[in-house]
Amino acid sequence: VGGATANMYGFECDKKLKSGVCQDIPCTSSQVCPILRPNHGPQIELLGKVRELPHVKKAFVNSGIRYDLIQEDKTHGKEYLKTLVDHHISGQMKVAPEHIDDKVLKLMNKPDKNTLMKFKADFDDLNKKSGKKQFLTYYLIAAHPGSQLEDMQNLKEFANEELHLNPEQVQVFIPTPSTYSALMYYTEMDPWTREPVFVEKDPMRKQKQKDVVTQKEPVKQKHHAKQPFNSKKRKKAAQKEQPREAKPANYKEYKTLHKTRKSYAEE
After folding, report:
1. Cβ contacts of residue 139 below 8 Å, gap of 6+?
2. What is the pTM of this model?
3. Dihedral sign, CA of 188, 170, 95, 63?
4. Which of 175, 238, 249, 255 is 20 to 30 A removed from 25 (C-alpha atoms)?
5. Planar angle of CA 136, 27, 47, nearest 5 degrees
6. What whole-number distance in Å separates Cα of residue 266 and Cα of residue 199?
């Protein structure tokens, strides 16, 4: 049950119904438009009717959730999330924060990372109370307009330290026709402010943005290599750093020289 945005069923914008879609303000961005009043009540009722249907063992709402709409619905938001946790998740729920950098999220029309963490806390709390072991997975995007390599390194650290995972579902941004993100990609400009936007277009560097996030090791800051505490290990490490002596062109000469050195060492 659901769709591209699973939890927008049953409520509409009054202004849109009266005078059409706004030309300069999105309904959902870093903040939900105050005119749009999310109401999950109708969908809670619908899901209840679905559960009562004969021959329906379970109805899933596993993805497509705008968690900012749940947080914005002060009347039915938590009730809706509890309904999903209790009846409509098959072990995991997929959400799409896509990034954590504020400037990139704004270009994506996505809520900030604090909204994500509040939703995660509510989700984990409800699962704990219901005795269920269910978890969140996250869709992430690399090389979206505005995103640079440093931003992806920050995303990796956030995923390791705050979400406690190594991301796997990471997609390199592909400009899709009739979207604002594609408009930014080709014009290298924010369509709302007309300010310039960094856009990574080199295929190798775009892939590198993804690789930074999907690597299994946590991102580490640049630092000088630590010396081994053990003296034998330290000596061995120092020997490795020294360049090896080149072999003579005549291999027989090399073997003779090696045997001579060995005999001196034994004496």
Report:
1. 94, 95, 96, 97, 98, 169, 171
2. 0.76
3. positive
4. 175
5. 50
6. 65
